[in-house]
Protein: LuxR family two component transcriptional regulator
Organism: Edaphobacter modestus
Amino acid sequence: MKQIRVLLIEDHFLARMALHSVLSGHSQIRIIGEASDGEAGIAMYRQHRPDVVVLDLRLPRVSGFEVIIELRKEFPGARIVVLSNYRGSEDIYRAVRSGAMAYLTKDASGEELLNAIQNVDRGLRYLPHVALDRLAERMPSVELTPRESEVLACITQGRSNREIAEELRIAEKTVRIHVSSVLDKMGARDRTQATIYALQRGLIHLD
């Protein structure tokens, strides 16, 4: 079984030790580094290139939000799990919008954290119902046509317009029209934001 190489970025010593204890007890997890602030966390990522980062949002020197943005800018494939005390919709939204693939609160069980890490390692998002419920507060209801719903599903899978056209057997020009309509109806600036909104409202579901 593949071991998932994990980097912990958490400023509180006891919390970091607790995380280390919980995760290192699983044979599938290998902790390859620990950092107590955002700047050190970024440096350790550059050095070790972990499979998954487990990150607190409130960090000294460089905030967790800034860490996410910097890592995703420098390493677009960086896979980040946020573990935070903050439950507000704004924190969850900002973290996911910045590029985090999972958001858990610190009262999550060790089993749920492991599940999140495993999903993120496979390239999947992991947002528990409590996070989706908070995010849903930010968005009004949306009504899409059946075709727009199909296009949205493809968008959330990261497919290009050409790939969507091949999947749905329609012209690429038609896809562009549908994508534009979906973004407009959802009030989304881009495909990433449309994916977040779709998760918020249950328009799509994660496996």
About this structure: The chain has a mean pLDDT of 87. The chain has ten helices and five strands. The chain has two domains: 4-136, 146-200. The CA atoms of residues 49 and 78 lie 9 Å apart.
